[in-house]
Amino acid sequence: MGRARGKSVILFAALVCALALPAQATGRERNRLWVESQNRALQKQRSTLSDIARRAMPAVVSITTQQAADVQAAAAGEEAQKGIGSGFIIHPDGYILTSAHVVEGAAEVIVSVLHPRGYVEEFEAIVVGEDARTDCALLKIAAPRKLPVLKLASASHVRSADWIVVIGNPFGLAHSVTVGVVSYMGRTDVTPNGRDGDFDYMQMDASINPGNSGGPVLDLHGDVVAVANAVNVAGQGIGFAIPIDIAKTVIPHLKSHGRVRRGWLGMSVQDFSPEVAEAFNLRRGRGVVVTDIVEGGPAERAGLQVGDVIVRVDQRRVRRAHALRWQVAARGVGRDVKFQVHRLGRPMKLTLKLDEMPSEETPLPTVASTAPGRHAGAPQPVVDDLLSPVPRSKGRRATPPPGEAAPGTGGSGQDAPAP
């Protein structure tokens, strides 16, 4: 009996000691009105995003531009209005990728680079080349050392809801970081400021503002998958970026020629749809429909006709007019392209040699026009570009007044002239 009582006393003492530990911990925090969380997963996620931004920061630059009139004003002692933008270093010798509208019409381009010791260095940049249709520009600065670079990945592996990190210079606030997810891949139904171009946008909800244009969009490996480019002025959290694959295609052209020498077919094409099929008396099928032929162009010389349905280009299936347009443009001048088409239901094979795309100001006579009454497509959202206050083109306002839409709309239902 005595032994049993002694054993129970020992057990009770052990239990009291066990309960005393949390009681003491609670006692140290008895004035706190909440329970502290130990959310290690959130800390790890934050650490990943922070590491991505920290590693990329030295290769992201701020770009300041002045138009010719502003340079003259500054020389006269007047306060000059400066444009702001972003960019990132892609080669240690000082090559920088940015948006073409950031440097459009600029007489002076200054690039600010973060020095390894933490201060900012400024360099005057030369514009090696620019391309308005993809809104890409290549700059070069003469730095006294090899510069850090960002690696260019591919947007082909990016999917909706993937996390992305954007670094840029919004409103002149250098090296600002925003985080979000990819909202949609392959937006071809919007056009920035009403300009026609070879756009295949990545839509994202990461916050971007004037000055972010030309900045990198990074995946969770810290590699560039897109270039921040445009924002919907009527919405929130609706930003757009150009996939880096497009930039990688045009960079060699910009370095070698200062511009992109696009392949040109001399025809217009449109997505296959019930309305298009009815307008051209087609049955059913897939591909893109030839809606216009330019007189004397490569398409006419090769024997293509209005109403032909293009189903393959060099053994690759064609499903969208926009994809065909970019595929041909990126091929270059003088290249042969093999087409598989359906004409009145019969398969045919044709070979075209690409000419160089004429100037957009040059009117081109057509052999045949699109059939009347075709479906033009519903109005699409207006997208405004991000550079402010540098004007996008002479005589065009940077932003519309309240209540007025930004100029221009786009729509994939409309004719897309193939290069």
Automatic annotation (TrEMBL):
Residues 259-345 form the PDZ domain. The keyword Signal applies. GO terms for molecular function: serine-type endopeptidase activity. Residues 357-419 are annotated as: Disordered. It comes from the Bacteria. Keywords: Hydrolase, Protease, Signal. Residues 1-25 form the signal peptide. SUPFAM superfamilies: PDZ domain-like (SSF50156), Trypsin-like serine proteases (SSF50494). InterPro entries: PDZ (IPR001478), PDZ_sf (IPR036034), Peptidase_S1_PA (IPR009003), Peptidase_S1C (IPR001940). GO terms for biological process: proteolysis. Transmembrane segments: none annotated. Coiled coil: none annotated. Belongs to the peptidase S1C family. This is Serine protease Do. The lineage of its organism: Bacteria, Pseudomonadati, Myxococcota, Myxococcia, Myxococcales.
